[in-house]
Amino acid sequence: MTTRYRVEYALKTHRRDQLIEWIKGLLAVPFVLHSQPTAVFEPSSETVEQMAANAQRRYAEIMRDVENIVNDHINHQKAGAQDRSKLRLLVPSVANFFTPLALHDAFIWQDQRRCISFRRFVPPSFNDIRLVLNTAQVMSLTRAGPLELVTFDGDVTLYDDGQCLTPDNPVIPRILKLMESGSRIGIVTAAGYTEARKYYERLYGLLDAIHASNLPQSSKQSLIVLGGESNYCFKFAGDSPDLLKLVPRNEWLLDEMLLWSEADITELLDVAEASLRDTVRNLRMEATIVRKDRAVGIIPQPGQKFCRETLEETVLIVQKILEMSPVGRRLPFCAFNGGNDVFVDIGDKSWGVLACQRFFGGIEGSKTLHVGDQFLSAGANDFKARLACTTAWIANPAETVQLLDEIAELDEIQQRKTR
Ligand code: IMP
Ligand code: MG
């Protein structure tokens, strides 16, 4: 029993999103009751269109109900009583919402594209619901007025893992369009470098395109890079050879971040490094330890690929050790699985997004969207951004492009309404 519990706990809970799983469970009921799998071999009195219309109505009703339960949670939040909301009882891990979610309309929107209601054998899936939640979020954001700040993760969100943002990347014209319409852009990545040149090498496609564009100078200034989760800030600078200029920490650090002492930073990284070294030895990993001034990590030796289980084990161990250490309680940190590496960074993306909001004059969480691929509760680094703003959970760079197209389309609809 104990072993089973531990396996469930350690290898499952952190790999599940409770809100999505809960919605998936709710939608499974109409699927079971209304899908008609036997119709593929037995004539049925209902056409597939009738079945789909019926299923869509039932699914959409449930999404409307969930939307209302989220609104009730938001009302509790406003009264400081979110712990007493019905949603919190149903989904204990649910956090705060920065805006309502247009779940009913988003379901219809995604159903028109993914034909969820037409399916007879495959019920609404994790990915269906993840995409409905993304659409619901951007619908609510665009309906409430212009999106003031969009922050993007780097690897897997803007470009494939470990790659660079090259000039042919279809995300570039979409980001330029956002900038043209007045949105500020933050690239909030774990990749932590002290020199502008390194970021230029990763992001040159976008930076060159901004430089060459006919955007007014002030719009060009509306892009910053927050590296190492929340450790290095660079702003766009057309006159610098790398098109980026380091912003001194005293110009962008939040007051709370000023309290992070160098002694604590060194101590936390020492504890993390010792744990990583231990795990590398125990799991016989062919790894190199990388120590930086604000991070420590393990990367594979040339030609090595770590398996998922090894990476997760490494993250969960270092995270637990840091959580239990005195310095880990004083200083925020982020331990995550980067796909074929593990890093522990000082700070996390909630601080990265908050720093971007502050840099641009105090933008609110309800006017900010963070787009990222890592939203599991442990071993993932975009997760913490949920503390600072609304979020969209994408699975690959193509989905980021789709999401930006959705925002543009929804914006267009909104503007037509207000004209
Ligand atoms: P992100 O997806 O943009 O947040 O980037 C994560 C990746 O950046 C990691 O998987 C690492 O490969 C890489 N990386 C490079 N330097 C650092 C660092 O200092 N901390 C964390 N990740 C780093
Ligand atoms: Mg990523």
From TrEMBL:
Its EC number is 3.1.3.-. Its cofactor is Mg(2+). The keyword Protein biosynthesis does not apply. The keyword Nucleotide-binding applies. GO terms for molecular function: 5'-nucleotidase activity; ATP binding; magnesium ion binding. Keywords: ATP-binding, Hydrolase, Magnesium, Metal-binding, Nucleotide metabolism, Nucleotide-binding. Pfam families: ISN1 (PF06437). It is an enzyme of class 3 (hydrolase). It comes from the Eukaryota. Homotetramer. IMP-specific 5'-nucleotidase involved in IMP (inositol monophosphate) degradation. PANTHER family: IMP-SPECIFIC 5'-NUCLEOTIDASE 1. Belongs to the ISN1 family. This is IMP-specific 5'-nucleotidase 1. The lineage of its organism: Eukaryota, Fungi, Dikarya, Ascomycota, Pezizomycotina.
